Amino acid sequence: MFSMNRRQFLVALSAPAWPASETRANPVKPPNIVVMVADDLGGGDMGAYGHPRIKTPCMDALAKESIRFTRAFLTTSSCSPSRASVLTGMYPHSTGAGELHLPVPAWNTLFTTPLRERGYWTAAAGKWHLGDAVRSQFDRIVGSGPSGAESWLKVIEERPRDRPFFLWLAAVDPHRPYAEGAIPVPHGPEDAVVPPFLPDTPSVRKDLALYYDEVARFDGNVGKVISALREAGVLENTVVIVFSDNGRPFPRCKTTLYDSGIATPLLVRLPGRRHGGAVSKALVSLVDLASTVTDLAGAAPLPATQGRSFSKVLDNPAREHRKYIFAEHNWHDYTARERAVRSTRFLYIRNDYPDLPRTPPADAVRSPTFRAMQQLYGEGALPAEQAGPFVRPAPREELYEVENDPYNLHNLAGHKEYLDVLNRLRATLDTWQRDTKDKAPAKQRPDGFDRVTGERLAPS
Description:
eight-stranded mixed beta sheet, 2 domains, Alkaline Phosphatase, subunit A, Arylsulfatase, C-terminal domain, alpha/beta, single chain
């Protein structure tokens, strides 16, 4: 079917729904769509993205049949707000579920709704984390076990055979806590690639190795889904999409607006392996995925969306898409409010609560990595590029030239030669906040956990 061009394909998809009412002699069946979401997988943490030691053979093989995006970013580095943003095509603060664990209000329309109107059977399997009000916008929802993937193959088997299907397969891996035994042949401390914002100690290396194990378990489950689709004879009419909901659960990653928090791997395998192995440098936000999926399905657009389809990039991976992406950090275990705008060259972050330290999420505070950092900081032995989670006041503004500073370590906000860039990004962020009605809450939500121990606080 992919000998036709995209316009012909979408015209065919816009024909009346079927199966019983379809009267054309040779109807074109819309593609199945399978989305697999990792929980806390860092943007570069697979072999296909250049990691030299992590074991991700299934995703690496998938990348060779997919378009691999190298500048894909999330709207937030926080689990449930990120997933809500993807499914609604709205920024977290616009969904009414912009803080961790808030249920998605019923007035939101998930992109599964126009898919169902198009005739799709829709199912979610694994981690839900979206509340009860929008459950009715899926035909089937199945929970899961420790990895989040135990029920993935079940919904593939349950799918109707006479309708296209959409599957939202949501993992728990590689979310904390970690334990040995996640995979038969584990990673060792020697496999760890320690970024410069973390100390290179034995405990940090072991912590990273256990994280890699859960990444590898997620990878294996991705491979099982691809195999199941192939064995069922439906893979070649299925769009397969893989991404993560936020950065790895380590200090200066998850919940931050640095690239280590909001960058995500993004693989899109098109039917027929079209553009397989291509690399797209287009700047893409995951708020755009909802419009892209409805576009691919030939479904009606969402009634309200703040994203825009990148289906033209799927036609031509060399195309550009966005000039800027936007991201936000709201309450996630701790009080916080930050906003960011990023271009291909610069990242600007504004912190509305600079009096508070940039404490990582509570599970990361309880981790061996943060314990090592606390000890070194107390001894005065933690370098400045690793001490950010302890600094108060935190910077009100940050500016990074990401091409030359991929780890976002050198704040240029106070450099006169970057004043024009700073002013332009300030204005761009102001415009986005105004256009999306992003207003600070009248009252701060208090911390839910102790910032030193990571233990839950009693309600005040």
